[in-house]
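Reviewers asked in the last cycle whether our approach scales beyond single polypeptides. To address this, we selected a multi-component target totalling 1016 residues and predicted its structure end to end. The input consisted of the following lines:
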Amino acid sequence: MTRRKENDDRVEMMQGTLDMLILRTVLLAPAHGHTIASAIERTSKDVLQVEHGSLYPALHRLEERRLIASFWGTSENNRKAKYYRITPAGRKYLAKERGRWDQIVSAIARVLGPATE
Amino acid sequence: MGWLRYFRRRRRNEDFALEVEAHLRHEIDENIARGMNPQEAAWAAQRKFGNVTLAKETRHRMNTIGFLETVAQDLRYAARLLRLERGFFIVAVLCLALGIGANAAIFHLLDAVRLRTLPVANPQELVEVQIGPNQKCCTGNFSSRRPNFTYALWDQLRSHQQAFSNLFAWSATSFNTTTGGEVHYVEGLYTSSDFFATLGANPVLGRLYSSEDDRPACGSPGAVLGYSFWQREYGGQASAIGRKILLDAKPFEIIGVAPAGFFGVEVGRSFDVAIPLCAETLINGETAHTPERHHWWLAVIGRLKPGWTLAQARAHVQVISPALFEATLPPSYTSETAKDYLAMKLTADLAGSGVSDLRSRYQEPLSILLAIAGLVLVIACANLANLMLARAGARERELAVRLAIGASRTRLIRQMLAESLLLAAIGAACGALLAKFLSSYLVRFLTTTNSPLYVDLGMDWRIFGFTAALAVLTCLLFGLMPAIRATRANPVTLMKASGRGLTDARERFGVRRILVITQVALSLALLVGALLFVRSLHKLLTLDAGFQESGVLVTEVDHSTLKYPPPRRYELNREILRRIRALPGVEQAAATLIVPISGNRWNDEFQFVGADPSGKFLSNFSPVSEGYFRTLATPLLAGRDFNERDTPNSPKVAIVNQSFVKQFLKGANPIGKRMRTETGPGEPETFYEVVGVTKDAKYVRLSDPFSPTVFTSLDQAAQLDYGTVILSRSQVGLNAQLAAIKREMAAINPAIALNFYTLRSRIADSLLRERLMATLSGFFGFLAAALAAIGLYGVMAYIVARRRTEIGIRMALGADRASVLKLIGGECGKLLAAGLLVGVGFALAASQAITKLLYGLSPKDPLTIGLSVLLLALVALPAALIPALRAARVDPIETLRDQ
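The resulting structure, written as structure tokens, was:
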């Protein structure tokens, strides 16, 4: 019981940012899970490592909230894969979250002040 | 959304598996492209993805309603466990079912007789008017179950009262529906016109009578049928309306049918036919009650006017009382009785729950039975608790193991909860079934041919809910306690502790010891009660009633339809007796007006002639024919029986019994004594000369002590009814005897109506209450004893199991079997003795409540208590012996090796 609670906390903390990253990745074109993971890693120059196992729960949660939708398609190397695309609600949500994120980042930056060293 | 997902979760899970597989394939493809070999590529992909199963589980949890999923699992597991532990399961369900079922059934009956309000519109406005208590009420002729009013008094009350918007009078009776030969009685009601309107009943068919039908000298007005009678006798056909029904040989037109479930105002009774009050003169003719101001036969209920309270109504009827009694003074009253009559006052009481003569008779027995059933429930719950605790003790290790391998505490508690709930649900369902069966059994038990009991047998969900809740609570409490305890402890200590200890800590089963002692104590109290009732019934059945009831057939002969004048009635009654005596096989036959133990009674005041005139005595009277004592095998101790020379014109003679001689004459020889009665209003004084003495015999009830009785000669009776009652003994079988009497009576006149029963059955009916108490308390008593034995066995078996190692060591050190037997036996003896001691105390304290229902026994009867202790000890013996023997058979090597 107690162990599961800890897990949940961590996922929750990650969730907001991971959600945003996923939404941003599928904003331009639909993609399947593997592409999304590699895209995030590639674009962040491997700073952000996505644990593939926790990617899917995040995807499914987003789907449940109707921020993305899924369909089965064929991938670039001719494999069957589940594709995710963003919904209008997802776009709106991304815009909102993005604004909030920028606010937080600049606020934190102001508090920390210019780097002294 | 959530629910939908729950039902589509299998497809979604497969979907996800495919998605994961696709992901891994992509990763592997990439890895191979980076130059790994396929095996390495697969491992790397796997590593990168992480725990696939965990992801799948997380995913599964998202798609399911966790609680539902695990509850189904828990229930399945619980059902499997219960199937495995069949003994435990059966005993537990039996405990629950009996506890719940018995309570629900008995409460149901008690509620029907005592508490429930009438199923009519606004019952709280109904008020019964009757003569106030603590007054010398009343003198005259009483008939019906509720003789509160004379017709004259009712008539006055109706026209003078202002408190009630509606008021009605009624009288219960029975009507014969045949025209001669063997009678067929239906339950009848005389009611005044407002009966149905006041109670708000609407006809299912035709119409209900109203004031136009009920007016003086109405002749033959319409009759209203009770719903179930209409269903039974007329097949529920609408064509019943307009047909004629014969009531005491008078035709009545059927005008309507009362609604289903409508039984009037008398609880526990129903009616088949209701006719207006005015028809009473037609039915009873010459002996009608209506014109007589000293015939009490009506009861009155009214509906309060809006705004009137009970107190106001009571004050009102009190204020108008003097005028009412003044206007209705019976002309035949002596000045003394008239004074009492004029001083009477009416009073009013709420009647929303109806009226009933069953109430006074059965309220106390049923309350006691409910208390007994309640105790059985307590014992059953204690037993259940004990069983659950024993089981949990055995499962402590299992729980510890499950905790150790990662089960969560709540999950384990929920598992135990599921087991308890499943058990409770099955038990409650069986209890409901049992309640239904038991209450219909009770109603059948209390129904006699003479007075059918009518009780709505619908299930009472309130009491069922209450008892079921209690039992379920017990289940939960004791099912959960061990789970909570086990899960709170450190699994390691628990696993170490179970089975490892040499002896077991005493306080660990302190609760269980107390439970067993309680069980033994309570069941002893119940056994004492049961034995008291059984022995009291046995005493009543075997007492010397002063007569031999077996083999006596009672024939009630009614020739009222012939309308003979008195001299011819006299002749006819003698002719009837003569003919029955002449039948082949008939050994003895005699006539009487009052069958012993029928509940009928005639008592009167008399004085001895020549003695102190102020010496008034009260004695029972019974007019009988010659041969009465021979027929009932009551010995004549002195003097003579009545004979042919005792005629209406000869001096009147009487035979008295021993109690009479003892109480009124202090043992002096009564023969030749003369006595004088001041019988009834308007009747002349009568003189009797005592000519004989008989042995004492019971008169009204078997449980009454012998009382002084004066037998007078039926041939010399001043008034003769349209009928007679013949007692006869015959060598031929009952059916042949019945047929012969029917033939013989039809030969005299086919219009003669006959009713048969045996004296034995009538006496059995009179002991109904005693038999009810003996049967049910006996059943519960032995049930309780059995439960206590099971409880004791459970604890002893548990103790032996826990102390196996200790016993093994003792034996290894040289203890022999006898000393082990003594060790365990002593343990058991201590529990039993403590229980019995507490039980005796409890029984002594509680048995006071049943004093009134006992015959010839003190509630503290030492023999009964001793017997109960012995009986319980006997039942408990195997419960103690089996575990003790098991302990003695312990193989020391094996137990020690176990360690």
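Residues 2-112 of chain A form a domain with the Arc Repressor Mutant, subunit A fold (CATH 1.10.10.10). We regard this as preliminary and will revisit it once experimental data from Aim 1 are available.
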